[in-house]
Design goal:
single chain, 6 strands, globular
């Protein structure tokens, strides 16, 4: 990507203490070969690392892309994209993969007229979500997503379906466009297997 644009690209990446004196990791070296400015960081939890990177960016006039974690800027960015779609695409059902719930929350926040939004959850297994609880795992994930939305916001009608495959299960289901086999292709499989049950038109929200 950096070879296609004139902007300077900076990438932060975490390294364990034992690796600091060793060679640059393969993928980071590939990025450096493409002209990317690399900034190593002491490995820790993702949120502290992100905030440290953001402080550096602000001090040096660098725009930092929103992180995919549970941040308001990520939710608002997705909301802005979906709210710009032509209305005729939103008269039926929108299907999207769900893991942390951030992207899905952004869709809910940006939608106003779609009949139904379905999230296909591929995060943890039902047992990991529930523990010894007898509650519906779909409802537990749904409550998590509602917790990411602004207080007092009433989203459009949405459901959470549990995918047949979890995150670490590879899925090579046929797909006519670029679709990650570890992530949203599992939601694409679910859509194809349930297409006759969904209100039309059906819109698939794909991350690529």
């Amino acid at each position: 990507m950096t070879s296609l644009v004139t902007l300077e690209c900076t990438v932060f990446f975490g390294m364990l203490k034992k690796d600091w004196d060793g060679p640059t990791p393969y993928f980071q070296q590939q990025a450096a070969n493409a002209g990317v400015n690399l900034i190593p960081m002491h490995a820790s939890r993702i949120y502290p690392m992100y905030y440290k990177a953001r402080i550096h960016c602000r001090a040096h006039g660098i725009y930092i892309l929103p992180m995919g974690g549970q941040l308001n800027e990520s939710i608002l960015s997705v909301a802005g994209e979906v709210s710009s779609l032509p209305p005729h695409l939103l008269k039926g059902t929108l299907v999207c993969v769900v893991a942390t719930g951030t992207m899905f929350s952004g869709l809910l926040f940006g939608l106003r007229e779609v009949n139904k939004v379905i999230g296909v959850y591929i995060g943890m297994t039902s047992k990991e979500i529930l523990g010894t609880s007898k509650a519906d795992p779909g409802n537990i994930v749904k409550k998590r997503i509602e917790g990411l939305l602004p207080d007092g916001f009433n989203p459009v009608d949405f459901e959470i379906k549990l995918g047949d495959r979890q995150y670490y299960d590879e899925d090579n289901y046929p797909c006519p466009f670029s679709c990650d086999k570890w992530y949203d292709r599992k939601a694409w499989r679910w859509l194809c297997e349930h297409i006759d049950e969904l209100d039309k038109p059906v819109l698939f929200w794909n991350i690529g």
